[in-house]
Amino acid sequence: MTFVTEFEFTLPKGYIDKHGNLHRDGIMRLATAADEILPLKDPRVQQNPAYLTVILLSRVVTKLGDLQVINPGVVEGFFSSDLAYLQQLYRQMNDSGMTGVETECPRCEHKFAVEVAAAGEA
Q: How far, in Å, are 7, 21, 58, 81, 122 from residue 100 at the CA level?
């Protein structure tokens, strides 16, 4: 049995880059202690504790579409539903170890649960 540390996801809406390209498929890795502690020293987090989510996700989302870098500026550009989706996925992966996520169809708005596959699994 292998220990899985990365999980694939598909954003409900997707991130639109400065060229108008849509990026939906990505990979999130499990957080380390440093991922949760180091952002607390960031002045943006000290001024606004809600910014912790932005920095934390920029550290653990390792792939998003064809983007070369996922930084806080990218996370700031997420639609709120995508941010909520990734926050829920983060909590489930790191707190409970479960990888089922509630999501919503962008067309019909039907809500349903999906199981997030480990990176590299089909």
A: 11, 28, 21, 17, 16
CA distances to 63, 67, 69, 86 from 21, rounded to whole Å, are: 15, 10, 15, 20
Specify the DSSP element, H or E, that contains 13: strand 6-16
Cβ-based neighbours of 109, under 8 Å, separated by 6 or more: none
Q: Tell me if 52 sits within 8 A of 45, measured CB to CB.
A: yes
User: Beta-carbon neighbour count of residue 88 at 10 Å?
Assistant: 14
Separation between Cα atoms, residue 12 and residue 62, nearest integer Å: 18
- pLDDT digits over 75-119, tens only? 999 999 999 999 999 999 998 655 555 667 777 887 766 655 545
Determine the Cα–Cα distance for residues 109 and 118; give it in Å rounded to an integer. Answer: 26
Residue 25 and residue 109: Cα distance in Å, rounded? 19
pTM beyond 0.90, yes or no: no
Q: Bridge-partner residues for 52, per DSSP?
A: none
